[in-house]
Amino acid sequence: MTTSNTHAPGAGDVDPAVREELARLRDSIDNIDAAVVHMLAERFKATQQVGHLKARHQLPAADQAREARQIARLRTLAESAKLDPAFAEKFLNFIIAEVIRHHERIAEDTAAPPRD
């Protein structure tokens, strides 16, 4: 029987110090994920208020000029943070699309006649 050097170590084969460092890093990642979710929730609370304001004043759900400025701003922030600007732009575009969807729904609900 031959043994291979490509053997992937099981959890029992890992040095306890490595396992401890891995757990520490994963705890940090989990904390960051929680912060990201909470920040997104706060962002969407604010954009919901924008959606209601736009609907009351019959403004369009999308604002392409602002979106372009925000994308450029986020790309610059990403570069300074050593984050791939293309990734940051994709992330913001995903968020913007969701915000516009919310704004359109708010506008539809605002324009709909009250139900009895």
Polypeptide structure, described:
- This protein is mainly alpha-helical.
- 73% of the residues lie in helices and 0% in strands.
- The chain has helices spanning 16-56, 64-80, 85-111.
- The termini are far apart.
List keywords for this structure.
mainly alpha; 116 residues; 3 helices
What structural category do the secondary elements indicate?
mainly alpha
**Approximate shape:** elongated
Strand content: under 5%
- What's the total count of β strands? 0
Order of SSEs, N→C? HHH
Rg over C-alpha atoms, rounded to the nearest angstrom: 23 Å
Measured as a percent range, the helix fraction is over 70%
The main pleated sheet reads as: none
Mean pLDDT: 91
> How many angstroms does the end-to-end distance come to?
80 Å
Number of helices: 3
Summed up:
The protein is mainly α and 116 residues long.
Fold blueprint:
Blueprint: H1 16-56, H2 64-80, H3 85-111
Helix pairs in contact: 1-3, 2-3
